[in-house]
Amino acid sequence: MNRKLTVAAVAAAFCALPAFAHAQDVASEIALLRGGEPGWYGSILGGVNMQSDSSFSSGLAGGKVAAEFDTGYGVVGAIGYDFGRVAQWGGFRTELEIGYRQNDVDSLSIGGNNLANSDGDATVWSGMVNVYHDLYLPASRLTPYIGLGVGAAYVEYDSFSAAGAPGAMSDDDTVLAYQGIVGASYALSPAMSLVGEYRYFGTQAVEVTSAPADGAVSSSDTYGSHNVMVGLRINF
């Protein structure tokens, strides 16, 4: 009886070997697709940019001018280096990024009263150094990640104007910038991944000066925006 059980067990083990080997092949293929090996990469992402409201000092009787913005767009491109798997649960990447964001003025108001025929736009060019932590999921092409970035931003407010507000404000400033990132990549092939992420992008106070007709009042306000982006990452 014991001999029959032993033979059956050996036969079952031999039958299971192809399935085990196939599972190992699938796991290896997914690991290759997902990455985990050191190397350079490039990425390009674009999407919606939702700029936070801003307020500026004014020589007008109503005091500060508040600005609300339409939903705009943003584009970022980066060159980075993936350090590969540093532990079973993940790895790290670092990159240099150039970004552009643009939003049109939706409305300008003074003392809570909206001004008619509001116009203008806000644009931001940024250069950032980002650091990411990739979180590897077992046997999955999906890789969640978190990231932080710091750098500089050139913020320009162009032709802010409205009926009842003399002149138009056009000014710019270069300031310290930062961002927090939460996203995930999905491996399409060993060389390409689909990427989707949320970012909060912010700056220190932006110093601007209102139009001479408005008394040339200096003002400052931080820039902030929420970004939802999708794009591709290419491994070199």
TrEMBL record:
<keyword id="KW-0732">Signal</keyword>
<dbReference type="InterPro" id="IPR011250">
    <property type="entry name" value="OMP/PagP_B-barrel"/>
</dbReference>
<feature type="domain" description="Outer membrane protein beta-barrel">
    <location>
        <begin position="8"/>
        <end position="232"/>
    </location>
</feature>
<dbReference type="Pfam" id="PF13505">
    <property type="entry name" value="OMP_b-brl"/>
</dbReference>
<protein>
    <submittedName>
        <fullName>Outer membrane beta-barrel protein</fullName>
    </submittedName>
</protein>
<feature type="signal peptide">
    <location>
        <begin position="1"/>
        <end position="23"/>
    </location>
</feature>
<dbReference type="InterPro" id="IPR027385">
    <property type="entry name" value="Beta-barrel_OMP"/>
</dbReference>
